[in-house]
Specification:
With 416 residues, this protein is mostly helical. The chain contains 13 helices and twelve strands. Helices cover 56% and strands 6% of the residues. A hairpin with a 5-residue loop joins β2 and β3 (126-128). 49% of the residues are buried.
Length: 416
């Protein structure tokens, strides 16, 4: 709250100054998108020998030619370049998006059992065939955005097929929500974890967030009644089951009965969920749901500010029981911090939130953007030491969070 008070003082400026901030923000993020983020992926990640995209570039900038190829990386590249083409109409963005779409359908899609393989080897052969619902969600997100940008029927058809697979195999009609992961032929799998850092539980906030996100995008291009019903249900799962109404943080891990025994605060997911939940409610077009969601959007975003630093950056995580914080400043958390706070300014007239968004952007420019090799570093420490142990590009390091941040700001300001 001290940071918010500081921002309030900072924003006690004339309207002219606020206009200057938004103008600078729009120009700077568009330059960053077109001159740093997208060229990195087009110039360094396209795999001309084996197809699709390389699986990894290390934090030191070394391409790992024989690295495995992850579904999340490919689907997020598809979404990013589809959205960039829709917004900016540059043919090279369409070419890259089409490469990602073709590789996702031809290599990652399981034509026998449906769904998306989790991982391929560098030649494009499946090596991890489990069906992680999180990955199916991102495939829907990318395919629906490609359709939104181009009108391509094949992309929409595959997005719909994946939506139906999630509803058939993952949705829990008895206790509500979506189960995490399955074998290749849709049997429940023993280890459901999305990554080594996660708890092995059947339902998670993270997967539900990244079903909410693609269902919202799919609904933009496919006004299906079942999809509409399930999108509404997902919003209510967040407001009624995932959100802790005492703290306004999101609980992360649940058993199938929606019981959570973990106390972990993920500040990045809190701020990301605040605007994705709002976006879903707006797109749904249900005034009753929107009126329920909008006060919560503001409370979730403000609760996330518990992790905010005076320089506008947002720390990663906090464990209340151990009173232990992970204070690393991750690239994706800062990107979502900018969008989430800009959303508060745009929709709720929260001027200090604009100050937070802009101050965080300045932090990103100074410490996270790699001005020599392109893209952003994974994270920096509190004393701004660059993390080169984690990838510059890889299974989890994609152009989606930072690319989306830039495009959200461009599009929101262009619509004013």
């Amino acid at each position: 709250m001290k940071v918010r008070c500081f921002m309030k003082l900072l924003m006690k400026k004339e309207k002219k100054q606020m206009n200057k901030i938004t103008e600078d923000l729009q120009n700077e993020v568009q330059w960053e998108l077109e001159n740093n983020i997208l060229p990195f992926w087009m110039n360094r990640m396209i795999d001309n020998e084996y197809g699709g995209f390389h699986g990894q570039i290390t934090g030191n900038g070394q391409r790992v030619v024989h690295a495995p190829k992850g579904a999340i990386l490919n689907a997020r590249i598809l979404w990013t370049f589809s959205a960039a083409y829709r917004l900016l109409r540059k043919p090279e963005y369409l070419e890259t998006a089409t490469r990602a779409k073709r590789y996702l359908i031809d290599k990652f899609y399981d034509q026998e059992f449906e769904g998306i393989y989790w991982e391929l080897d560098y030649t494009g052969q499946p090596v991890q065939t489990k069906k992680q619902i999180y990955a199916l969600g991102f495939a829907i997100y990318g395919l629906s955005e490609y359709n939104r940008a181009t009108g391509d029927k094949e992309a929409l058809d595959y997005a719909i097929r994946l939506f139906k697979a999630i509803e058939q195999y993952s949705f829990d009609p008895e206790k509500n929500g979506y189960m995490e992961a399955f074998t290749k032929d849709w049997k429940l799998i023993e280890d459901m974890r999305l990554s080594d850092k996660d708890e092995n539980e059947k339902k998670t906030m993270n997967t539900h967030l990244h079903i909410l996100e693609p269902y919202t995008n799919l609904y933009r291009v496919w006004k299906d009644e079942h999809l509409k019903k399930q999108l509404r249900n997902l919003i209510l799962i967040f407001t009624d089951k995932i959100l802790d109404h005492r703290t306004y943080h999101l609980n992360l891990f649940f058993n199938e009965d929606w019981e959570s025994k973990y106390r972990i605060i993920s500040y990045g997911h809190d701020i990301e969920a605040s605007w994705l939940l709002h976006e879903a409610a707006i797109e749904l077009g249900n005034n009753e749901i929107l009126q329920k969601v909008e006060p919560l959007v503001q409370k979730i975003a403000i609760a996330a500010e518990d992790g905010l630093l005076a320089n506008g950056s947002l720390i990663y995580e906090y464990h209340p029981d151990e009173k232990k914080a992970d204070t690393d400043l991750h690239w994706w958390v800062q990107a979502e911090n900018v969008v989430g706070h800009f959303n508060l300014y745009q929709h709720f007239g929260d001027e200090p939130a604009l100050g937070t968004a802009y101050t965080c952007w300045k932090f990103i420019q100074r410490y996270l953007i790699d001005k020599e090799q392109g893209e952003w570093h994974w994270s920096v420490s509190l004393d701004h030491e660059i993390n080169r142990e984690d990838d510059k590009a890889g299974f989890w390091k994609c152009p989606y969070h930072n690319g989306r941040m830039c495009m959200e700001i461009i599009e929101r300001l262009a619509g004013e």
